[in-house]
Amino acid sequence: MTDDERQTLIARAMAARQWAYAPYSNYHVGAALLASSGKFYDGCNVENAAYGSSICAERTALVKAVSEGERQFEAAAVVTDNGGSPCGSCRQMLAEFGLDLIVLLLDSEGRTVRDTTLRELLPDAFTPEKLRRDGRSL
Ligand code: THU
Predict the structure, then answer these.
(1) Is CATH 3.40.140.10 what the domain over 3-131 is classified as, yes or no?
(2) From CA 34, how far away is CA 102, in angstroms rounded?
(3) Local confidence band at 132 (pLDDT 50, 70, 90 cut-offs)
(4) N or C: which end of the chain has fewer CB within 10 A?
(5) How much distance in Å is there from the Cα of 122 to the middle of ligand 1?
(6) Which of 58, 70, 74, 109 is catalytic?
(7) Among the atoms of ligand 1, which is closest to the Cα of residue 90?
(8) Cβ-contact 44, 60 below 8 angstroms
(9) For ligand 1, atom 5, which residue shows the shortest CA distance?
(10) Residue 104 bridge partners (DSSP)
(11) Which residues contact 124 (CB under 8 A, 6 or more apart)?
(12) Alpha carbon of 83 to those of 45, 75, 93, 103, 128: distances in Å?
């Protein structure tokens, strides 16, 4: 990821946060993904009166990207009030497309609280290869 891409990724996640629909938790999250194609995809959390039907910002961005044909990703940025870390479901959904993903966690001031990888956030991940007896990629 270039410095320009990193800045754009962060800006996209910060901007997406304004669209968070979080009337129940009031915890507003913005996320952005940089696909290997060079395109950016962003998303926010969208809550629901049936709480369990809510979706996180990271998964919103991911399903937007995958539903437009993307399968490979370089980096993700997540912006919250306090640099919160992606939930287990989001880590698992992202892991489907590779553990080498760079993950930047930022607070609402745009400060990078953590610069890590999905491999570090989700050790011993269950990945698509596990579903093949020969262990090869699907
Ligand atoms: N949330 C996210 O969107 N991403 C995270 O990384 C953590 C949690 C959302 C889910 C819910 O709408 C709110 O934050 C509080 O859990």
Answers:
(1) yes
(2) 10
(3) confident
(4) C
(5) 17
(6) 58
(7) 6
(8) yes
(9) 86
(10) 77, 115
(11) none
(12) 15, 16, 20, 12, 29
**15-44 burial, b for 16+ CB within 10 Å, e for fewer?**
ebbeebebeeeeebbbbbbbbeeeebbbbb
Domain boundary assignment for the chain? 3-131
Amino acid at 108: S
The burial of 105, by beta-carbon neighbours within 10 Å (0-12 exposed, 13-18 middle, 19 or more buried), is given as buried
pLDDT at 136: 67
Give the residue with greater pLDDT, 133 vs 26.
26
Is 0.85 surpassed by the pTM of this model?
yes
Tell me how far the alpha carbon of residue 102 lies from the centroid of ligand 1, in angstroms: 19
Place of tokens 């919250």: 80
pLDDT digits (tens, 9 = 90+) for 53-109: 999 999 999 999 999 999 999 999 999 999 999 999 999 999 999 999 999 999 999
The CA 48 to ligand 1 mean position distance, Å, reads 12
Catalytic (active site) residue 109:
no
Helices 3-16, 57-66: inter-axial angle, 10-degree rounding: 120
